[in-house]
């Protein structure tokens, strides 16, 4: 059976190899398309309904949708085996690799072309992307969502054709460029870029007169139809053609350089919050001014004091101009966030996988600007605090526009157009109040309406809060609210001074709350997380969940909390505005004792710890010993009763931002047990999702705090995780395995000092790996056996699996295959006892490798296929790469086509996720395959890169094998280089005492 693939760029279809899958009638196909546009992401049920039926879905549409999804699930599961539509609490997900869907493949190929600096390679990628088109996208689908998405794709298709024409011209394929430009010019006779491409192609092909005629014809058409002259670029091209400028004939040759580490799929963002439908502009119409400036592609900053309405204006203007930015609109609430963290969020929104986001903040900015190059995107940066926070986020030159809001006009900002906001006039304030409470009520009491605006000091936020209070109480007269405000003389006086206006406006809503709701708001002000699920309110108030939610909803009604859509595990999440959180924290300082404040933070962060600790054991990942501290863990099991183990990784998806914020708040407070406990719970999740940059940064931050406060256990746990991620993922000075050896010895001593056998066992395994890498096999075996004893004494089943696997690795590296297989099978038994799929898949890998070396190919293939299936089930790319490498070596002997496919995919994944060790092995395999196919020059290219990478790893047997393979490749093309490679291979073999392999190498 062949691979599954889907087509949306034309008729909505699916194929299994050469055979079409029966997807049913058209409406059912539209449902599949609505899911595949967000392949491998959960799509809420309401969105599927809107996409397929539009905003006015007929009665019974939801039941019909469930029926369609059930039929599609059966059709795809029965035909494809590995394709499944899954149901989640938040909706449905098409669990497929996005690359098997032509829309995503098209966008990935175009993005990959933009990322490469080689025009020939880029042209081929764009050509492949355009070949995927078979007609009008989503053929036959007529809902508003499909129509909008189709228009966007058609714009991308046209842009790709233009890009291809430019690329063909850059690399000298003028005839091919002429064919494309001729068709595009006939379709778009006023397009100056197309005219320039056509003219340049004609000139290069010796048809200079035709080139000049093309430019002149375009000029006449522009003047006749639009009344404008051509732009500078076309005029300059005509001058250079007339002057026979030799630079016009220059072409670019692809340079030999490393391919980009990652190509990402462009996903046009649309993250604007809802429009402010009751928006009220001011005298001078600043909103209209901002709109005009933004449409010109500038950087515009809206400034003013807190509560002045900057964000409302930005939201309103952004929606008005959104259609002028067809490549997407991005909204970011900056708050106090660091630019590097914001760039990571933006890159995720644009479709960059976590594993592909650079750790370095400057590199993140470079990637962000590269992705926006040539696109027309609106970027809104809300709540900026300083110039240094904004400038790293600005796109490069192009059609993008940026709208910034800030409380104060920063000094030293260049190239920014500033729009300053002032308070409302009486008329403007009354207009906003009218839109909130209704024209009839305001007309009945006009003087009272004006008095309310005056008492609010014309501050838009204060007027809005007052209006919302009235709107929620239809029986109140406006004079009643005037009376309430008049009773609060001190608060009214404070409305006239700076930020106190905002505080007084919040206090008005605060006073109307029940005592318990007020206390909940105060305690929430102490918890510095971006959002939170309902159970947090229950933990803070120490009340049953339903009762606590009632108090939280009272805060929502008072506009002191907002509610988001459901998260991936089906929970609603609350969000507290930063000014309200500040207001609440100030009241907590005044109205709560220090002990109560500390207890509230301890309970909230401890609640996340209790949940994380319960679920981290079910996340497939490293089977380290779970090492916890003495941090408080409130009882939470009854607060999220439906959270079953299989939802563990999804729960971490939902709580990721809150957990990271909780760790950092614990660090700031010096609560080291909470900090290292929470960070330790995140390690397996970070590994599963490939979030190595986050893992590295968070563990280092917690480590610093633990060292500063003398928390030795926390220090040990953080160093253990850092040792793993810095060895296998991050690059550093020297050889990675040598660094592991030095750091593992020091960390082993620390765990022994602490009397922690399980932790010592984990680190002993790391030391054993480093000994194996150095060729000290007896030491590696002795250390792994010590780890086995330590794990057994501690009852650490994961440690037993790790130690047995370390023994398997050591014996296998020493060519004691039968012994290695026995240890791998014992590791498999322990992994299954532990219930950790990651380690089951890993043990299957090494057992499969052993059986391969023993000549039992069928047994080996069966084990490796099992391992691969587990890895793909959990979307565990790290384990998948390892298994693909083993499978490629197996099939190298029996099936070159399968070996090539496995090796190429392993290399692509390892490059994407920066797995240097596995990249080196994948390159060696591709070199061996090239030799088998009589392509020695290609083999040399792969093997040279492999050897260069192995020099940084410090695993000598792999390094020597790659050198030996490089010598074999050079024998076909360069005898001197071959002898040099063989000599170095012999030297490395002798260094690790492998005289047999050294002797077999030819002189």
Runs with pLDDT <50, length 5+?
Answer: 256-265, 488-500
Mean pLDDT, to the nearest integer, reads 84
The shape, in one word, is globular
Radius of gyration: 32 Å
Number of strands: 13
Neighbour order of strands in the largest sheet: 8-9-10-7-11
User: Level of helix content?
Assistant: 55-70%
The biggest beta sheet reads:
5 strands, parallel
**Structure annotation, total helices:** 45
Oligomeric assembly: single chain
Ends distance: 47 Å
- Would you tell me the structural class of the helices and strands? mainly alpha
- Relative strand content: 5-15%
Structural commentary:
The protein has 1003 residues and is mostly helical. 64% of the residues lie in helices and 5% in strands. It has 45 helices and 13 strands. Helix 5 (119-131) runs antiparallel to helix 6 (144-170) and helix 7 packs antiparallel against helix 8 (192-204). It is globular. Mean pLDDT is 84; it is low at 256-265 and 488-500.
Summarize this, please?
The protein is mainly alpha-helical and 1003 residues long. The protein contains 45 helices and 13 strands.
Q: Which descriptors would you attach to this protein?
A:
45 helices; 3-stranded antiparallel β-sheet; mainly alpha; single chain; 1003 residues
SSE layout:
Elements: E1 4-7, E2 13-16, E3 19-20, H1 26-36, E4 43-44, H2 45-53, H3 61-80, E5 84-88, E6 91-95, H4 102-115, H5 119-131, H6 144-170, H7 174-187, H8 192-204, H9 208-226, H10 232-242, H11 286-295, E7 299-303, H12 310-321, E8 329-333, H13 339-349, H14 361-372, E9 378-384, H15 387-390, E10 401-406, E11 417-420, H16 426-437, H17 439-444, H18 446-455, H19 460-471, H20 478-487, H21 489-494, H22 500-511, H23 515-524, H24 535-541, H25 545-557, E12 562-563, E13 574-575, H26 578-591, H27 594-616, H28 648-669, H29 672-689, H30 692-709, H31 712-728, H32 736-754, H33 757-773, H34 777-794, H35 797-813, H36 817-834, H37 837-853, H38 857-873, H39 877-891, H40 896-912, H41 916-932, H42 936-953, H43 956-970, H44 975-991, H45 995-1000
Parallel strand pairs: 7-10, 7-11, 8-9, 9-10
Antiparallel strand pairs: 1-2, 2-3, 4-6, 5-6, 12-13
Helix pairs in contact: 1-2, 1-3, 4-5, 5-6, 6-7, 6-8, 7-8, 8-9, 8-10, 9-10, 11-12, 13-14, 16-18, 16-19, 18-20, 19-22, 23-25, 23-26, 24-25, 24-27, 27-28, 27-29, 28-29, 28-30, 29-30, 29-31, 30-31, 31-32, 31-33, 32-33, 33-34, 33-35, 34-35, 35-36, 35-37, 36-37, 37-38, 37-39, 38-39, 39-40, ...
């Amino acid at each position: 059976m062949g691979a599954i693939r889907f087509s949306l760029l034309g008729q909505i279809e699916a194929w299994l190899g050469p055979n079409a899958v029966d997807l049913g009638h058209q409406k059912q196909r539209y449902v599949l398309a609505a899911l595949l546009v967000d392949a491998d992401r959960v799509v809420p049920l309401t969105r599927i309904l809107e996409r397929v039926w539009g905003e006015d879905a007929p009665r019974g549409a939801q039941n019909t949708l469930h029926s369609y999804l059930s039929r599609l699930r059966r059709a795809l599961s029965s035909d494809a085996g590995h394709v499944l539509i899954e149901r989640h609490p938040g909706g449905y997900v098409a669990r497929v690799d996005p690359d098997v869907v032509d829309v995503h493949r098209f966008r990935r190929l175009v993005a990959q072309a933009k990322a490469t600096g080689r025009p020939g390679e880029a042209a081929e990628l764009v050509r492949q992307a355009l070949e995927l088109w078979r007609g009008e996208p989503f053929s036959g689908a007529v809902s508003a969502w499909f129509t909008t998405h189709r228009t966007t794709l058609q714009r991308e298709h046209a842009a790709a054709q233009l890009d291809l024409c430019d690329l063909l011209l850059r690399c000298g394929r003028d005839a091919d460029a002429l064919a494309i430009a001729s068709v595009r010019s006939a379709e778009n006779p006023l397009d100056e870029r197309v005219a320039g491409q056509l003219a340049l192609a004609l000139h290069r092909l010796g048809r200079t007169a035709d080139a000049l005629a093309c430019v002149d014809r375009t000029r006449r058409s522009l003047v006749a139809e639009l009344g404008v002259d051509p732009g500078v670029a076309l005029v300059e091209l005509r001058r250079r053609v007339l002057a026979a400028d030799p630079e016009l004939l220059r072409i670019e040759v692809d340079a030999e350089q490393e391919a980009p580490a990652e190509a990402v799929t462009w996903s046009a963002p649309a993250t604007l919050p809802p429009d402010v439908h009751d928006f009220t502009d001011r005298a001078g119409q600043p909103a209209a001014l901002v709109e005009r400036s933004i449409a010109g592609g500038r950087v515009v900053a809206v400034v003013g004091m807190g509560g002045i309405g900057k964000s409302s204006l930005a939201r309103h203007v952004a929606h008005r101009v959104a259609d002028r930015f067809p490549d997407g609109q991005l909204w970011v609430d900056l708050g106090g966030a660091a630019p590097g963290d914001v760039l990571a969020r933006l890159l995720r929104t644009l479709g960059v996988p976590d594993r592909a986001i650079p750790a370095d903040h400057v590199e993140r900015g470079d990637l962000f600007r590269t992705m926006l190059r040539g696109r027309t995107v609106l970027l809104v940066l809300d709540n900026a605090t300083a110039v240094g926070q904004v400038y790293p986020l600005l796109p490069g030159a192009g059609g993008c526009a940026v709208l910034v809001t800030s409380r104060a006009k920063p000094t030293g900002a260049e190239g920014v157009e500033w729009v300053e906001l002032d308070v409302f006039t009486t008329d403007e304030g009354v207009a906003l109040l009218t839109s909130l409470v209704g024209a009839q009520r305001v007309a009945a009491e006009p003087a009272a309406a004006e008095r309310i605006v005056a008492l609010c000091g014309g501050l838009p936020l204060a007027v809005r809060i007052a209006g919302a209070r009235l709107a929620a109480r239809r029986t109140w007269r406006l004079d009643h609210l005037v009376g309430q405000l008049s009773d609060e003389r001190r608060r009214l006086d404070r409305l006239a001074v700076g930020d106190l206006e905002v505080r007084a406006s919040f206090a008005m809503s605060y006073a109307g709350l029940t005592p318990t709701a007020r206390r909940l708001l105060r305690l929430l002000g102490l918890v510095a997380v971006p959002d939170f699920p309902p159970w947090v309110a229950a933990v803070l108030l120490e009340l049953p969940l339903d009762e606590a939610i009632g108090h939280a909803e009272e805060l929502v009604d008072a506009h002191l909390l907002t509610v988001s859509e459901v998260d991936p595990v089906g929970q609603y999440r609350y969000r507290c505005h930063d000014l309200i959180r500040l207001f609440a924290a100030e009241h907590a300082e005044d109205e709560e004792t220090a002990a109560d404040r500390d207890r509230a933070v301890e309970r909230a962060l401890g609640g996340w710890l209790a949940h994380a600790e319960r679920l981290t054991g079910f996340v497939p990942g490293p089977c380290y010993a779970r090492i916890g501290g003495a941090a408080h863990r409130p009882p939470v099991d009854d607060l999220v009763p439906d959270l079953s183990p299989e939802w563990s990784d999804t729960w971490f998806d939902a709580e990721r931002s809150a957990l990271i914020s909780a760790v950092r708040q614990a660090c700031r407070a010096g609560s080291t047990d909470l900090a290292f406990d929470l960070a330790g719970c995140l390690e397996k999740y970070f590994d599963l999702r490939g979030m190595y940059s986050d893992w590295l940064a968070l563990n280092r931050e917690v480590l610093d705090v633990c060292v500063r406060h003398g928390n030795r256990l926390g220090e040990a746990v953080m160093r253990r995780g850092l040792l793993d991620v810095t060895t296998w993922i991050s690059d550093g000075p020297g050889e990675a395995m040598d660094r592991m050896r030095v750091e593992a010895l020091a960390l082993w001593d620390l765990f022994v000092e602490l009397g922690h056998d399980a932790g010592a066992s984990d680190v002993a395994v790391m030391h054993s790996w480093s000994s194996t890498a150095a060729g000290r096999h007896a030491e590696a075996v002795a250390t792994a056996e010590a780890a086995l004893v330590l794990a057994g004494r501690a009852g650490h089943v994961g440690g037993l699996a790790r130690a047995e696997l370390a023994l398997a690795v050591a014996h296998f590296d020493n060519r004691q295959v039968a012994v290695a297989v026995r240890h791998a099978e014992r590791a498999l038994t322990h992994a299954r006892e532990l219930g950790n799929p990651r380690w089951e898949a890993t043990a299957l890998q090494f057992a499969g490798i052993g059986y391969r070396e023993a000549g039992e190919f069928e047994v080996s293939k069966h084990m490796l296929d099992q391992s691969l299936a587990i890895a793909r089930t959990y979307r565990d790319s790290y384990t998948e790469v390892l298994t693909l490498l083993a499978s490629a070596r197996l099939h190298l002997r029996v099936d070159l086509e399968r070996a090539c496919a496995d090796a190429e995919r392993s290399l692509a994944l390892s490059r994407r996720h920066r797995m240097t060790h596995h990249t080196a092995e994948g390159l060696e395999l591709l070199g061996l395959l090239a030799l088998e196919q009589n392509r020695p020059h290609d083999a040399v290219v792969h093997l040279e890169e492999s050897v260069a990478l192995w020099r940084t790893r410090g695993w000598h047997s792999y390094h020597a094998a790659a050198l030996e393979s490089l010598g074999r490749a050079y024998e076909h093309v360069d005898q001197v280089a071959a002898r040099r490679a063989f000599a170095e291979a012999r030297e490395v073999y002798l260094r690790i005492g492998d005289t047999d392999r050294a002797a077999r190498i030819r002189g």
